[in-house]
Amino acid sequence: MEDNLCFLNPFSDYKGALHSSRGTAAIVSTVTATVDIILKQVPLDPGDYDGGLYDGPAGVAYMLFHVAECALFSEQRDAYLETAKRIIDASVRHVDADRDVNTRAAFLLGGAGIYAVAAMIYKAMGLAEFVKPLAKFCNLWEVCAPINFLECGSDELFAGRTGYLCAALVLKQKLGFEILRKEQIKAICHAIIDSGKQYAKKKRKPFPLMYSYYGTEYLGAAHGLSAVLQMLLSHHEVLSRPERDLVWQSVDFLMTQEQNCNWPAELGAIIQRENQLVHWCHGAPGVAYLFAKAYLVNNKPQYLDTCIRSGELVWQKGLLKKGPGICHGVAGSAYVFLMLYRLTGNSKYIYRAQRFAEFLFSKEFKAGSCSVTRSYSLFEGLSGTVCFLVDLLQPDQSEFPLFSIFV
Questions:
Q1: Residue whose C-alpha is closest to residue 6's, from 335, 273, 287, 387
Q2: Fewest CB within a 10 Å sphere: which of 18, 202, 308, 354?
Q3: What angle separates helix 348-360 from helix 301-317, to the nearest 10 degrees?
Q4: Where does Zn(2+) bind (predicted)?
């Protein structure tokens, strides 16, 4: 039966040799050509600067920063950073004008992520004024600390507390120092755990922590439990012993929700094999990062085994028809292989990532994939694809954009 959500994988699997037709020079050339295409699409009107890092121009600024940080693009570095600065400056002005301070605290959909990326770009350019957006970012911790600061759900990745913690983690990685004080991180983690306990108790769940976003009990990375737990594990050193126990119980509960090497988009749903979501946002390609983090923290083999099973599903069903992006597209699938390479050192996963990169530029993909509204965007469009191609050139440093597990 044909799958409506993905292409049939036409490739034979790894036989001990990497794919040679797309070498370093070819990928570098593809990246620079794709960046040129993207920059012609970025809107000039300040009124079009919504969408945050997810699908706004700010995501293009992050992509340019990411390319500029790779040594293979040293000739383009200054020009890319200058363009990134112009875009992020306009994005900062846009969020500064937003009167809704709660929106300003959002990571992928609002100000927190934009301030974070502005600080990274300024620092990369050697500008002392990187401290200005950094201060704006740090001041937002008070906004998202109250337990119900968002009516729609205060804890998920795109707009809630988990996203703010994620942004702080990325900043720590890129700038090389801790951004928030230990007490601030502790307060946000405590609020996340308190919120999850209250919700689980209210809904009479047989497990300790659960959350909802707009009334839906999501499990995936975009809005769900897996990303929340991933960020709590990323800051496990500030948690008390009882809090840590609640987190690990919840991680192990989520493991029991696996169906066909995948996870349903929401709690209690049954996966239909022929129509299952195998996306970073909903499904195994995003949930795998939680179990990767769990493995890195406590080294239990069952967590790595879960990641490996997820990778097998992605190899079968990850050539998605919804576009080239990282949220629910082919590049997002391919990032799972780069993550598994870093966890295992097995070159099979570089080979698989190479094959998915090849497919992104095939006639079959171009003819059969969905068009994307903002084709320049980081999460749905070509900017995420560029980040993936750059990381394919440096697999030992590769990471899904703005979603670090190796810190």
A1: 273
A2: 202
A3: 30
A4: 281, 327-328
pLDDT of residue 44: 82
- Altogether, the residues listed in the chain come to a count of 407
Q: How far apart are CA 72 and CA 401, in angstroms?
A: 18
pLDDT tens column, 212-235 = 999 999 999 999 999 999 999 999
Task: Report the distance separating Cα 50 and Cα 110, nearest Å.
Answer: 8
Residue 406 corresponds to which tokens in the numbers above?
A: 């190796």
Known binding-site residue numbers? 281, 327-328
Strand partners, 365: none
Q: Summarize the annotated binding site for Zn(2+) as residue ranges.
A: 281, 327-328
Q: What is the mean pLDDT of residues 156-176?
A: 97
Residue 72 has pLDDT above 80, yes or no: yes
Residue 217, amino acid:
E
Question: What Rg do the C-alpha atoms of the chain give, in angstroms?
Answer: 20
Helical pair 382-393 and 330-344, crossing angle rounded to 10 deg: 30
Are the C-beta atoms of 43 and 49 separated by less than 8 Å? yes
Q: What is the pLDDT of residues 235-272, one digit of tens each?
A: 999 999 999 999 999 999 999 999 999 999 999 999 98
- How many other CB atoms sit within 10 Å of the CB of residue 268? 8
Q: Please state, in angstroms and rounded to a whole number, the distance separating the CA atoms of residues 379 and 88.
A: 17
In the predicted structure, residue 30 carries a pLDDT above the cut 60: yes
Q: What is the pLDDT of residues 309-335, one digit of tens each?
A: 999 999 999 999 999 999 999 999 999
Query: In this structure, how many other beta carbons lie within 10 angstroms of the beta carbon of residue 352?
Result: 27
pLDDT for position 21 = 65
Residue-wise DSSP of 206-265: SSS----BTTB-B-STTTSHHHHHHHHHHTGGGS-HHHHHHHHHHHHHHHHT-BTTB--S
Q: Do 369 and 45 form a contact (C-beta atoms < 8 A)?
A: no
Other C-beta atoms closer than 10 Å to the C-beta of 361 total 14
| Nearest residue to 357 via CA among 318, 322, 396 | 318
